[in-house]
Structures
1.
Amino acid sequence: MMSSNESAAGIAHVYRGTFVHATYHTAVEILEDRLLGVDTEGKIAFIGSGKEVDRLSQKWGFEAVTQLGQHEFFMPGMVDTHIHASQYSYAGTALDMPLLQWLNMYTFPVEACYKDLEFARNVYTHVVKRTLRNGTTTACYFATIHTDASLLLGQIANDFGQRALVGKVCMDTNNFIPHYKETPEESEGETNRFIGELLKKYPLVRPVVTPRFAPSCSAALLGHLGEIAQNNDLHIQSHISETKEEVNLVKELFPDYDSYTDVYHRHNLLTDKTVLAHGCHLTDGELKLFRETGASIAHCPNSNISLCSGMLDVRRVLNHKVKLGLGTDVAGGYSPSMLDAVRRTLDTSKALTIQDTQYHTLTFEEVFRLATLGGSQALSLDENTGNFEVGKDFDALRVNTDAAGGPIDLINHEEGPKVLLEKFLNLGDDRNIVEVYVAGKRVVPFVEGP
Ligand SMILES: O=c1[nH]c(=O)c2nc[nH]c2[nH]1
Ligand SMILES: [Zn+2]
């Protein structure tokens, strides 16, 4: 007789070795010499002791076992809760201005180019491949206002096997580049078309309703988008309180609202499927509203520092019991690697500690959790992904800390798994990520076409 969470599907793969993940109670749980079975639907069917291989193979009917090496471990794939796929072409440049000027000078002119589908295909293929190689198994993408190019991003994520939320950007206000905006009616109509074409098209790709941010959207447009999200039970993403200048602008543009958060709230845009990037300058009252509605924050530390926007106090957000994940925010953040987001999160927490020696600095274990399980919770996808629990999809990175030609030198070769994890988070890169799995399927190394 099968227990309720036991898989009815057959076993496709079994791996033996060290598994490192976060749980709801423990920031880093290390499981040594385990056997993990993945069923033919890509879900984790069982986790057992390596010593019980004979009993488990009889019970589950498998023969082959993939054995990890001494310096290898599996960890959950990382979740990038906020990345602009369309800005990848200029990642690593253009970081010399504050947000509002940066948008006008660099971002809007580039995003306007995505009318051209071949340009879009080229950049979107690069960003999906790069992020997968860097260990991002789930990405929450902003595209541009162009519906067809945004649909193409969804198709490319599907083709390479990445789990993705994809947003066609909505904006009806742009004083700087008037041709890069829509009317509220166009934006509403095209969002409906986008959702209609993407919803249920691919197993791992979903549409996300995407008002760019309050300064780019009229109240009418925000209202339309809140209604669309509510009627279709969809994810929502936007930006909030990234810089003080932006917060002041929202006060001017929306004088009848209590706060920036209230602008989204009163347009039905704050739900437990909402993720808002940055939030550096939110008040306690606004964080309370996040908690009450279940909305989450995408913490984007590289971008916050690169554009001199602010330093989010993650500890304060967690103390408010608001869900929080990490985001690269390419291209305000210059790196498309979630390992960079982990390091910048630790740096920012340490910078806050320099300012206040009583500050409760984040540990690397806590940040590991934010990059994996925390991100999946922030996107309300943690029923399916984020850690190694029976019944969840097997979204995983096979990490080899001793990869030949890689960036980590192991000196005595006797380091335990916790040290190997810490070294990987601080020193590792894609050379250490030897395989990437999404829903049980190996997606890195890439399978080259004919
Ligand atoms: O970092 C950011 N990148 C963007 O593209 C953007 N748009 C609004 N606010 C933004 N912040
Ligand atoms: Zn952003």
2.
Amino acid sequence: MVLDAHDIYLTLWRHIVISGQSEEVARGLKACTADSEIISFVRRVADDSIGEPFELKELQGDGKNEAKAIECRKLGNEKFHPKIKEYVKAIAYYNESIALSKDGSETLAIAYANRSAVCYELKEYTDCLQNIRLARENSYPEQLLFKLDNREKDCLKRLAENDHKQLEKDDVPRKPKLSYKPNPKLPHISDCLELKEDDQFGRYLVTNRNLSAGDIVIEETPFSSLLVSDRRYMNCDYCHDDQFLTLIPCKSCTVTMFCSTNCQHKAMDTYHRIECSVIKDMQSLFTKVILMALRTTTTAISTFDYNLEELRLHVESIDEKSLNPFKLNWTNIDSKQVYSTIHILATNQSLRSASDLVQRSVYAIIMSELLFRNTELGKLCDNNESHDLIRTLLFRHAQTSPVNMHSIMFMDYTPKENEKYSQLNLGCGSFPILSMINHSCAPNLVRMTLPNGNVVALVNRPIKKGGQLFDNYGYHHCLESLDERQSGLLGQYCFRCQCEACKLNYPLFVNLPHAKFPPSVKPPIDYDEMDRLAEHDMATALRKIPEYCRFLNMFDSQYPNYEVSSVQEALLRCYQIVFSKQSRKVRYKDLCSL
Ligand SMILES: C[S@@+](CC[C@H](N)C(=O)[O-])C[C@H]1O[C@@H](n2cnc3c(N)ncnc32)[C@H](O)[C@@H]1O
């Protein structure tokens, strides 16, 4: 069995501890004056103590696999069976079969043909025709061609009769706008936001005007992004759209699919050219946080047109202490400068323990070895400096990723669960401005992903002029106890939280007191309306937004209480209904079992 990278680190660290070397290793790490020295030091310690930990002989690599493709197709057929009718699950298997099949093969053609049959049942006739074309372009068995011909005729007939699914106008998410004038140099953020820095908080964002619940103050595009691996047969690897009926596979690897040749080319240009031959092994070795370090590094390399010397000189020229995203003019910024703003994100390196630095060095060594052995980086890195560059970038981003990356979400249709729609993690991205926002366990904003992959910051508690914007890093007082929050934040983000919720020990949601309203105020939560929001009813969402915002602005002085927290949740749901990306699956709820 292949060990994952965390096991390799654990084996090494245990050996260091058991052999009584931990203090010596900590001293050795402290004495290093550059990241490249840290990595070399860890490599020496590893080679001396556990032999050749980075050989990774058990890794399987990747390659098309006809037998597995046929197996997946059979699983798809089971889900497609008229008594089962789990069409979306059938599609996931057919897509996997497509990704595993050799280009031009009969197996590939049959998987496309089977996918066309699902499209037909789902009344997606245009997609059905596209799959029929793809099946014919590959080696579909001659003797079965009549099936495709008949399905094609039926599709054309249905299209002529207009018997196909059309998006209801209300299903289409709207585009949000910034609530205040955009900053002339940073048009993706409101001009009221400023960057400050001090000893307690590091860099952080403040507002120079009063902000109200419901304001949208940032809409940011990620520099680099990653699709989680369990969505790889349902969503486009590049734009993350859930175009699962028409995904096309990478011709080489078996774990990457795209919604169009356009996205395929863009992915190739930005990261997949380097990652293609190693991404499957990387996925088996690393968590998404560390894969994000890989993605940010490969995106940086392509940003510099694979010119490693130029990238090295650029990185060396960055003045980390003084550069920040507010110093750049984003109206005509080039992507090399955008990378600079990702390069300077917090690493918290000086606060990390010896074992943490060993862990991240081990990850950087494993990733770089795989890249040097199996990708064009092996040839491109023709001197020690370029090898060091790749290792140190991976090491740096293995530290910036867990501290700064943000999730990319969408609203999945989950009719069998408590909530009909629930937020599903599609992946993650690196964001220069959003990464400047500090944490509070009682935050005053939430993040939301738009269908185009941008992430917006939505204010959900009023913020006074001069006040700091606070995000939540996954440790909210409503959901976690003070101890859990303090230790979680210290472990992952290296700071002791002193937010109002920690200082005043705000209760969990279940223990929140009720707000005191004047008799004229109607309770904000109406359970019928909540049911309609649970159904993602656009009209209800649009109607409730101003009401909820008024309530949050009026009663924030009584925070924390049950009503304000409930309305915050309900407001976020309304915004998700109006602006977020929603699963395409919902369109098929009456046609199959989901
Ligand atoms: C995403 S960054 C936020 C921007 C960061 N302050 C900077 O200077 O780059 C996260 C890091 O900021 C710091 N941080 C975030 N919230 C904080 C808070 N409430 N108090 C102190 N430090 C905080 C921690 O070092 C954390 O790892």
